[in-house]
Amino acid sequence: MQCFETVEQLRSYLTEARRRQQSIGLVPTMGALHEGHLSLMRTAAAENDIVVASIFVNPTQFGPQEDLATYPRNLEKDARLAAQAGVTALFHPPVEEVYRSGNATWVEVVGSLTESLCGRSRPGHFRGVTTVVSRLFNIVQPDRAYFGQKDVQQVQVLKRMTQDLFFDIQLRVVPIVRENDGLAMSSRNAYLSDTERQAALILSRSLEEAKRIVKDGERDTAAIEAAVTAFIQKEELAVIDYVELVHPDDLMRREQLEAVGLLALAVRIGKTRLIDNTFLEVPACS
Amino acid sequence: MQCFETVEQLRSYLTEARRRQQSIGLVPTMGALHEGHLSLMRTAAAENDIVVASIFVNPTQFGPQEDLATYPRNLEKDARLAAQAGVTALFHPPVEEVYRSGNATWVEVVGSLTESLCGRSRPGHFRGVTTVVSRLFNIVQPDRAYFGQKDVQQVQVLKRMTQDLFFDIQLRVVPIVRENDGLAMSSRNAYLSDTERQAALILSRSLEEAKRIVKDGERDTAAIEAAVTAFIQKEELAVIDYVELVHPDDLMRREQLEAVGLLALAVRIGKTRLIDNTFLEVPACS
Asked: How near does any CA of chain B get to the CA of A182, in Å?
């Protein structure tokens, strides 16, 4: 695996790859790699000749009260894991390489996709995401880019951006990877104490609870959300940011669950904000 | 010359061109082609194997009170002129091809580059320009893109966008083309009556006046602007939008002219808003 800190170096590597007609996969990450990231990398390695993984803690997607300064960083370990997962080029630029002097350009998706769910509690977050991902898309010009279903709203926003701006890139979405006990993998899990780690199981368990309720016939959005909310509130350490059942396409609520809905959660466990989600499907036969 | 209305058709043509290792030049226009556009196209033809010209009256760069509906359109004549100027592919998409259903993504340069000069009197204009040009850049993925110095602020904004977002595209800026009597070529000149056409000469003449003043030793920004303003006001049909002497890099005013400044004008002649500009250079020897 080769490592690059500058756009120029990475580009000359990629120009060579393109000359050899090699396909290029991109896995954008903020580092602190876990099995979720590695699953993206392995998928990318299976589908492309070259896999570029970026490790860049992007300042523009953090709010002023958020955890930019403390976000876990461990480049040496990340590099070892990435190489094992099939990454051929690691791009680890300093902030001033991606946001150069005089930088003033933003890419923004407006409307329900960025105003709902995490958009409400993290204003500006998705503007930071689309701004950095559009830069990475242009730097790497990959054939395919890989994102995790865990960040489902990010996926929907980036799909919209890719389509609207005509990026000639295929977005590939990889399923959530969970610990054995159900906790969705996240770099922020590292913040949790043992007690909090146990309490955090309430997220995935509440999604299972929702599936049971729907299987039992409930179709009313408010009723499903209320049941999930009550379930989570039984955990003393949990403070709900949102529990919402929305349509997967526009991330807006409907009165009734039809065909398939997206149940998305953001819950604070102590100081750590965690997210999780699942699709709720109405059985074809009832 | 081949003509395309859809992104898909144009892309399959361009994929073939790239397979043959042909270089691609892009000339984005809103049609109503004049010698200024044709100069861009001829330059592009001299520097590239393939020249794509787009003709697209972009609704997002017009304000609600502006001339979107009446903007001159003449595709048949434009196509003939473009072919003669060396264009190999004409891209003439309907609005709903560039802004598809569900479109919600904007590209925006913020700060002095878009807030000064035309940014003040045309809020949202440059956001529309960067949004459509980023789409065209991704659709065509040219090696070089051509813009006219007449739209000097647009040039500076697009240079910023290209650099910030790492578009792998060389921006080429082509000098202003003028009528024999000095009037800068513009599609909007078609709006002028004979009397207005004569009055419109005040723009280019005032730029010549400014050059004389600077040659005579004036360096004070306010004094140069005041002299140009007074000169324009002698023309009864002229209503000044702005007269500003700014630094070419950030488009912000300085107290004194040093080395080189950009003198930019927007003036209404009747209902028609015209722009013009020139660089003012301080002589190396005095």
From this structure: 35
Tell me, what's the ipTM? Answer: 0.94
Which residues in chain B are closer than 8 Å to A167, comparing Cβ atoms?
A: 138
From residue A208, give the alpha-carbon distance in Å to each of A182, A276, A279.
10, 12, 11
Q: How confident is the model at residue B201 (pLDDT cuts 50, 70, 90)?
A: very high
pLDDT tier, B286 (very low <50, low <70, confident <90, very high otherwise): low
Extract the tokens encoding A249: 């396409």
Burial B219-237 (b: 16+ CB within 10 A, else e): eebeebbebbeebbeebeb
Q: Is A161 annotated as a binding residue?
A: no
Residues from B contacting A (CB-CB < 8 Å) are 7, 11, 100, 102-111, 113, 130, 134-135, 138-139, 141, 160-161, 163-168
Catalytic status, residue A92: no
Kindly determine whether residue A168 and residue B11, on different chains, have CB atoms separated by under 8 Å: yes
Whether residue B11 and residue A161 make contact (CB cut-off 8 A), yes or no, is: no
Question: Rounded to the nearest 5°, which phi and psi values hold at A240?
Answer: -75, 130
- Where residue B78 falls among pLDDT bands split at 50, 70, 90? very high
**pLDDT at position A283:** 87
* DSSP 8-state secondary structure symbol assigned to residue B151: G
What is the distance in angstroms between the CA of the first residue and the CA of the last residue of chain A? 52
What domains can you pick out in chain A, each with its CATH number? 2-174 (3.40.50.620), 187-278 (3.30.1300.10)
**Token representation of residue A228:** 């999930």
Angle, helices B125-140 vs B152-164, to 10°: value is: 60
First to last CA, chain B: 52
The DSSP call for residue B187 is G
H/E segment holding residue B12: helix B7-19
In the Cβ-directed half-sphere of A171, how many Cα atoms lie within 13 Å?
Answer: 20
A149 is in an annotated binding site: yes
Task: Give dist(CA B118, CA B246) in Å, integer.
Answer: 13
Please state, in angstroms and rounded to a whole number, the distance separating the CA atoms of residues B225 and A275. 57
Say if CB A265 and CB A277 are below 8 A apart: yes
Q: How many CA atoms lie within 13 A of B2 on its CB side?
A: 14
B236 to chain A nearest CA, in Å? 40
Rounded to 5 degrees, what are φ and ψ at A212? -65, -45
Scanning every residue of chain A, which has its alpha carbon at the shortest distance from the alpha carbon of B103? A164
